[in-house]
Each structure stands twice: as structure tokens, then as C-alpha cells.
Amino acid sequence: MYLMISTYRVPLEQVDEARADHLAFLGGLEADGLLVSAGRQDPPAGGVVLLAVDSEARAREVMAADPYVTGDLATYQAIGWTPARGALVNWTAG
Fold first, then answer.
1. Exposed (0-12), middle (13-18) or buried (19+): which is 60, by Cβ within 10 Å?
2. Which of 47, 2, 54, 1 minimizes the C-alpha distance to 25?
3. Which of 15, 16, 18, 76 has its CA 20 to 30 Å from the CA of residue 85?
4. Cβ(32)–Cβ(65) below 8 Å
5. pLDDT in tens, 18-31
6. pLDDT tens, 30-84?
7. Rounded to whole angstroms, what are the CA distances from 30 to 34, 38, 51, 74, 94?
8. What is the pTM of this model?
9. Domains detected in the chain
10. Could you give the CA distance from residue 88 to residue 76 in angstroms, rounded to a whole number?
11. Where do the YCII-related domain residues begin and end (predicted)?
């Protein structure tokens, strides 16, 4: 799994203008079995997307199509992650 941690590059008002498109993009990832979870940081300086992919290259490839990225509204940091405890320990794509 990969945590994709975004940082907004523009004021929140500009990010929110593209939010519906971003959420639709995430919905597509969910339908494809790639999205485990996602949400906005609090305070809203960016977000976190948890992807069920095996490599950083694949995680970056997937997120390159995010409207926040294509619109130059946010950047993502990729962090590989393997759950060791809790609800996601035995998680598999549905």
C-alpha cells in the first residue's frame, strides 16, 4: 500500500473549485479497487489517499491523473506502508 499525502499549492478556495472533479476521480479509483481510503487533512492543508498498489511508481502513475495534480493545485508525497495492526492488517481489494 502507498500513502499519498498531498499538499495544496494554492488557496483552499481554488482547491474547492476542483473538489467535485477530484472526488469523482477518487470514486473511479475506488471502483477499480485501487482506493482503500481517502480524506482531507485537518486543518485542510492537503489530504491523504491510501492506495492498494505495489510500487511507488504505480502510486505516482495513478495520482498523476488527479485533477488536483493536472490543475497544479496540489503535489503528492508517496510513502510505502504495510499495516501491522488494526482493521487494515488483512485488507484485500474487494
1. middle
2. 47
3. 76
4. no
5. 999 999 999 999 99
6. 999 999 999 999 999 999 999 999 999 999 999 999 999 999 999 999 999 999 9
7. 6, 10, 9, 20, 9
8. 0.92
9. 2-80 (3.30.70.1060)
10. 22
11. 1-80
